[in-house]
């Protein structure tokens, strides 16, 4: 028993605000408690504990939306008790999802007529969307190989080593597809299309390009990939397709760079995923995948369910899910329109520029992100001899900021960066405030380093025969090794990445 019961009637006069009567012992962590407690107490206990979570608005690690208009919050709350999958009972919600799919397909220039229904589905996020797109490619490739009486047991996907690890490696492992990764190099942190096409073979189910690398926000050159792949397909007789992981960039490129060809305008692009909960401006829990044509989604992957009253085609990994996020996505589309989305994305870009200029002004960092791409600023230390980006990240936490630090994937592991994602609710004043706090952190770290060096000197003077010898300045290699050790410790401790 972990919760204290009401001691006596007299106790009723004691307000259970702050739940003190109910938390005389440790809170339940392993078993459901024997007795009930009043709802106000349960609320207070949980609310108090949650105060120790970070502030989502200051979580600059995440692309995921942390602010929506109160009107939309109301729609979300009104729909929290609707199971999306009960399509027969909630036909309007289903209709809103279909409208969203159509709007996204048009935004991505799918070859469909004005009134034609697009092929796509709402998901929990880009990860589920990628699983579904990957499955469709795998099944299509297998069907083709079977028809040709060729082996179909060694499918692979070609990607850059910068793919979002948790979702693409998860797909590869769960669905038994080899992930062939194009390595990065210092100064070039996206997939090189030429190298990717070189890696394509007859077992390649697709090449996955990223519109907005998670690490630096940079857009990969999908057009060049399409052209090189088309050439290779002509030479070999294969028909290797492209999937675009536009988790972040899908709601940026159409508004800021309408001329950029990355979507269904390119013939080899057969499917695209986008996170509604990133720059689609909806709270966590919605993603989308759209296919070019019906033929790109094998019919045998679609389930037809009719026990709830009508024929319902479904192609998702989970059956039940909430409806709120779909409704919220439709709200954002009609509330903002093209004009509203463009304004917000332009504003995010402006704030990214302000932040970038402030960070450059410290003369301590190199900017790793590009001006064209997802509005974020990724930056590395010019000199990691005194302190590392991990120290900067940890010290910024004292000011409430959550700014992740991480090393790049192979073959650029020795490069460690900090990354600030600019979302709609990260205003110009917050950007300026962050620059001020970064400067304070740098002064603090510099002072700490000076103090530590002085102590080492004093020790060396006090004990000239050993123990306290003056520490020589670290070589670049030593610093990189130290960064890698630090990173490994951090990963071992957390097992999850702050980069999402
Ligand atoms: C490029 C890319 N793909 C996929 C994902 C996974 O997206 P989600 O969180 O919507 O599942 C992310 C997440 O940051 C991403 O940046």
Description:
It contains 12 helices and 13 strands. By secondary structure, the protein is an alpha/beta fold. The strands form 3 sheets. It has a 7-stranded mixed sheet, with helices on both faces. It has a 4-stranded antiparallel sheet with strand order 10-11-13-12. The protein has a two-stranded antiparallel ribbon with strand order 8-9. Helix 6 packs parallel to helix 7 (222-236) and helix 10 packs across helix 11 (428-462). The protein is globular and about 80 Å long. The protein binds pyridoxal-5'-phosphate. Pyridoxal-5'-phosphate (PLP) binds at residues 63, 125-127, 164, 167, 210, 214, 245, 247-248, 275, 287, 500. Pyridoxal-5'-phosphate binds at residues 63, 125-127, 164, 167, 210, 214, 245, 247-248, 275, 287, 500.
